[in-house]
Every structure is written in C-alpha cells, then in structure tokens.
C-alpha cells in the first residue's frame, strides 16, 4: 500500500453504524470518533501548517482553486470536505502540472491522496530528484507572491472580496475600474471556483468579472436550495447593486445559461443595462420543458454528469464524494426540471450561443433556438470539443466575451 494511503491513526469502535439502506452512517461514525478522541485526550489541532516549500505551493494552488484564504487550508484537510468536486480536482491537477512541472499527476491521484500532505508525498515519491520539485515550488511561490499590481493582474490576479454592495458569495475578480463587467453563472452542480480560470482569462483582457455561487455548495453549503430557476435568478439579482457595474455581459454554462436568461429579464425590468448574454452549451429556454425531468436518484444523477463529460467516472466508486456532490446537483436538477418558458419571451440584450462541435447533448440546432429569445442581434460560435469545451478554450472564449463588454 502506498505510504500516503496508510492511516495515521487507528481507533477501535464497539460497532459500525449503518443507515436504513445498508450504507455506513458517516455522520454517526464521525460522532463516535469525536467522542473517542474526547475520551482519549487527543487534542490534535484540526489545522496543520505546511512544513515544506512543496506543501506551501500545493496549499496555494488548492486554496486558490477553492476560493479560500491560504491559512484556511491545512495540509491534512480533506480536499472534498473543503468543498472540492471533480471539476475543481481537475483544475487543481491542471494547476500542479502547469506551475510545478508535474505532468505525471492524474485526477485519480487527487481522489487517492485527498490532502496536501499526502499529495506532496505522492509527488515526491515519483521524482528521481526531489530537490528539483522543491526548487520549482519555490519559484512558483516567488511569482505568486509578487506585490506589483501590474504583475499580479497579468500573471495571477487575486480574487478580491466583493464590495459591500455585494453578498460575500459573489466572487469578484478585479480587472479594471472602467464601466462594464462580466457576470458568470456556473453549470448544474458547479461551484464558483470552477470558473476561476475563466475569470482570470477575462481579467487578463482588462475586464471586471463576477462569478456567482449557487446555494448547497462550497461556502453556501448550508444555504437552502432555490425551488425554481426564477427564484434562483431573483436571489442572485438581489445579491448586489448591479447598477454599479453595468452594463453587464452575462455568461452562463449549461443550466447557467437559463439562470442568466432569467437574470437578464430581471435586470432589464429593473433598469440595469445588459449588453449581451453568452449561452454556453445550454438549451434555449423554450426547449427545456420538452426535454422531460432530469434524474433524481443518486447514481442516475452521477451517471448523467459522467455522460456530460464533466465528472470523472471514478466518482461513482467514491461514496463520500457522492454525499458531498449530489445534494447540489439534485437541487439544480429539480429547479431545471420545473422550468418552462414560452418561445415568444425575449430579452433586448444580444444573445451569442456557443458550444462544442462534439457535444452529444446540445446540438448546433439546439443552440440556434436561442435566436427566438432576443429582439437584438443573435450569433452562433462553435469550438472543437464536447459539452465542457470551455476547459480547452478559456483564452479564446475570454477574448470573444471581452470584446462584447465595451
């Protein structure tokens, strides 16, 4: 067994509790373990700081992807318990490959290691020269910690706390003080952090960018789910004074395109200028109801996500991850399944539909249906790729969207 998979602590329990469905009751197990720790007098701190340069670099990458402060992520904290999911795990792996020159790292390694300490041990074990990895990590930290505003904007723009006029779960990436901004709406089950790299690419084009966080995930895990797409759009519209950043350019991926459409309707009714809506890999509003209800059973939900191409199939074997991810996806699927919109409902903003030419769920004809929902200009673009083509074309898409801002 690899060293990073060997348990650090072993606790003997009198019994293992199970749920009515025959699965391990993780909540009760946690309570039993906590009680055992209390009795044993083990007061080990829940937070452990990095001890090596490599651990510090990994913490920086993971914290950035999760949208957390560095000191909020310990080296023994479980990535998925902190709000990570398969999409974010893919982004962490991409970041480590890019910044730490570790091309051998796979997404499956994230599910095996789960913590920064274990991940550092795994990477070091694969290096013929461990010193090389420490040196690369040191260079990365030097770049990431530069204080020049110009350098930070070009190389690694830091997520700024939203202005007081916005809820804390509206994530802001500052690109300019000029009027106009892009507002990003994630896909079903997606967290705001999954669109951090798109936000960075938009900032590199001198565009102020906001990414909204839906309830039931990450820092909003305890927030109740919206019972409809319209209710979710209203909650997001009321989360900030959008007049301050107008005119807005909206970008929504998959379900996020429908949420963005309803947001645009609210904005236009309330006098907030919307320049354009970018509908990415999403059905047109008037076609959603005819598609029928989305899956509701846990396994069917994850199988549907795997079919879309945004979730690693290894998740189907990870019961703990399923418990973290499924509530958010099911909440989004319920809202989308109940959505209906007549074909004559239009927004004044231009609509630009965009998708992947190998997306087996959203065809070119389906994207073209968005034309009926604008009284402005309609355009259509295709990129090479599937439903999540965006991950491979961030810079190109960011340039196109940025050109729409002003």
Feature tags:
alpha/beta, 406 residues, Non-ribosomal Peptide Synthetase Peptidyl Carrier Protein, Chain A, single chain, globular
What is the spatial order of strands in the main beta sheet? 1-3-2-4-5-6-7
**C-alpha geometry:** globular
Number of DSSP helical runs: 14
Could you name the CATH class of the largest domain?
Answer: Alpha Beta
The overall average pLDDT, rounded, is 85
- Count of domain modules: 3
Order of helices and strands: HHHHHHHEEHEHEHEHHEHEH
The CATH superfamily of the largest domain appears as: Alpha/Beta hydrolase fold, catalytic domain
CATH topology of the largest domain: Rossmann fold
Terminal Cα span: 56 Å
Extract low-pLDDT stretches.
40-45, 147-158
The chain-level structural class is alpha/beta
At CATH's second level, what is the architecture of the largest domain?
3-Layer(aba) Sandwich
Strand content: 5-15%
Using the CA coordinates, give the radius of gyration.
Answer: 22 Å
Catalytic activity: a fatty acyl-CoA + H2O = a fatty acid + CoA + H(+)
Pfam families: PP-binding (PF00550), Thioesterase (PF00975)
Cofactor: pantetheine 4'-phosphate
Keywords: Ligase, Phosphopantetheine, Phosphoprotein, Virulence
């Amino acid at each position: 067994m690899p060293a990073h998979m060997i348990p650090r602590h072993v606790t003997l329990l009198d019994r293992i509790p199970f749920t009515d469905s025959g699965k391990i009751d993780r909540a009760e197990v946690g309570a039993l373990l906590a009680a055992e720790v209390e009795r044993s007098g083990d007061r080990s701190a829940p937070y452990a700081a990095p001890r090596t340069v490599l651990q510090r670099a990994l913490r920086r990458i993971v914290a950035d992807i999760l949208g957390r402060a560095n000191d909020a992520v310990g080296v023994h904290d479980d990535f998925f318990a902190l709000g990570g999911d398969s999409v974010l795990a893919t982004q962490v792996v991409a970041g480590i490959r890019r910044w730490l020159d570790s091309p051998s790292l796979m997404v499956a390694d994230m599910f095996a290691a789960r913590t920064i300490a274990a991940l550092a041990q795994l990477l070091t074990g694969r290096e013929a020269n461990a010193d090389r990895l420490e040196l690369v990590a040191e260079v990365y930290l030097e770049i990431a910690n530069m204080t020049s505003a110009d350098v930070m904007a070009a190389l690694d723009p830091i997520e700024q706390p939203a202005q007081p006029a916005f809820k804390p779960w509206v994530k802001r990436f500052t690109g300019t003080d000029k009027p106009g901004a892009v507002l990003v709406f994630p896909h079903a089950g997606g967290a705001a952090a999954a669109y951090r790299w798109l936000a960075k690419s938009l900032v590199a084009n001198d565009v102020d960018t906001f990414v909204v966080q839906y309830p039931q995930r990450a820092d909003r895990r305890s927030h109740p789910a919206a019972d409809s797409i319209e209710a979710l759009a209203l909650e997001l519209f009321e989360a900030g004074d959008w007049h301050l950043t107008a005119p807005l350019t909206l970008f929504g991926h998959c379900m996020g395109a429908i949420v963005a459409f309803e947001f645009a309707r609210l904005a236009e009714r309330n006098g907030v200028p919307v320049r354009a809506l970018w509908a990415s890999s999403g059905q047109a509003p008037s076609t959603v109801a005819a598609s029928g209800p989305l899956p509701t059973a846990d396994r069917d939900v994850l199988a549907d996500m795997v079919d879309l191409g945004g979730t690693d199939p290894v998740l189907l074997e990870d019961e703990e991850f399923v418990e973290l991810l499924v509530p958010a996806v099911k909440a989004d699927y319920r809202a989308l399944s109940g959505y209906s919109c007549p074909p004559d409902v239009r927004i004044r903003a231009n609509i630009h539909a965009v998708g992947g030419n190998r997306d087996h769920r959203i065809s070119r004809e389906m994207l073209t249906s968005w034309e009926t929902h604008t009284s402005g200009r309609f355009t259509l673009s295709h990129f090479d790729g599937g439903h999540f083509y965006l991950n491979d074309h961030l810079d190109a898409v960011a340039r196109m969207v940025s050109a729409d801002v002003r």
